[in-house]
């Protein structure tokens, strides 16, 4: 599997906490919500958009 996430998928995904767009961090394999200060993991190519699975990020 390549490290990239499908651009169409990324265009429709939003943060479950804030309903704002997510930024793809290819190096960390995460979807980042700047608004919520959370990073959601991508595991085996599947975004895990569960707030309890997200990592807090520094603002």
In summary, what is this structure?
The chain has 59 residues and is mainly beta. The protein has one helix and five strands, in the order αβββββ.
Describe what you observe in this structure.
With 59 residues, the chain is mainly beta. The protein has one domain: Single Sheet (N-terminal domain of TfIIb), CATH 2.20.25.10. Helices cover 10% and strands 29% of the residues. It is built from one helix and five strands. The chain has one helix at residues 7-12, and strands at residues 23-25, 30-33, 38-43, 46-47, 55-56. Strands 1, 2, 3, 4 and 5 form a five-stranded antiparallel β-sheet that branches. Strand 3 (38-43) and strand 4 (46-47) form a beta hairpin. It is globular and about 25 Å long. The relative contact order is 0.23. The mean pLDDT is 93. Belongs to the UPF0434 family. InterPro entries: Trm112-like. It comes from Hephaestia caeni. One of its GO terms (cellular component) is cytosol. Pfam families: Trm112p.
